[in-house]
Amino acid sequence: MALLEINALSVRFGGVAAVTDVSLVINSGEIHGIIGPNGAGKTSLINAVTGMVAAHSGSIRFADREIAGVAPHLISSVGLGRTFQHVELFGDRSVFDNVLTGFYRHQSYGLLAAALRLGKAGQSERQTREQTRLLLEAFDLTVYADTRAGLLPFGIQKRVDIARALAAEPKLLLLDEPISGMSEAEAEAAVTTMRMLAREHGITLVVVEHNMHVLMNLAERVTVLNQGRWLASGTPAEMQANTAVIEAYLGDAA
Ligand SMILES: Nc1ncnc2c1ncn2[C@@H]1O[C@H](COP(=O)(O)OP(=O)(O)OP(=O)(O)O)[C@@H](O)[C@H]1O
Ligand SMILES: [Mg+2]
Questions:
Q1: What are the residue ranges of helices labelled H in the chain?
Q2: Ligand nearest to the CA of 18
Q3: Fewest CB within a 10 Å sphere: which of 75, 86, 161, 226?
């Protein structure tokens, strides 16, 4: 069943065509990779889906509702979450507090809700704190629980960001290069945990990534963008063998 249906989407910044005429269906429960060289429009696509930039044209349907043009906080409140390529944590707050805010669905009001002790419906603050502890453990973050998030290396902040996003239990989570800045071992552990929690909680994942090898182990299907346009979709193995995809990447390297 389609959870997200993007149809002929275009995003423009003045004269720059960031996304051009892209159509894409994400099915409920799948892990879908999006790859493409620098400037392919991956982040712009996520920004459009989450309402952070306006679509120039086209349609975005999420759980059978049109969401193009809807404000970001309303989009997140219907179960669409994201993480940022450059990480946006509350740098002065502890890792624990950052992940705790994830349990409060309207992320932009998270700290306020926390201050007012408004937990998830019917759930006490004590339960929410216990869940936060478990989530920190799952992502190997327990030792950093009391550390100010802004003081941590980028790769660890990325893990905090993923944990916080999963805490909100969105229906669909869009992750923008979630493992960049991590060592190979860190990345593997983070990907394993992410996949396990997503399956357990029925969270559909869209993972933007530069590196095809990472997606080989994570995604069931992959869509390749190039210069703002759809280039190909298929299994990771099919994409690795696709001539147009190889050319796009060779062009990027050259
Ligand atoms: N806010 C903006 N203002 C103007 N141009 C932008 C803006 N954001 C993105 N662009 C342009 O849109 C195009 C697509 O950029 P985007 O960041 O979506 O690519 P990307 O695939 O995420 O790249 P990367 O792999 O480097 O993160 C690029 O040409 C970029 O310069
Ligand atoms: Mg990007």
A1: 42-49, 72-77, 95-102, 110-115, 125-138, 154-167, 184-201, 212-218, 236-240, 243-253
A2: 1
A3: 86
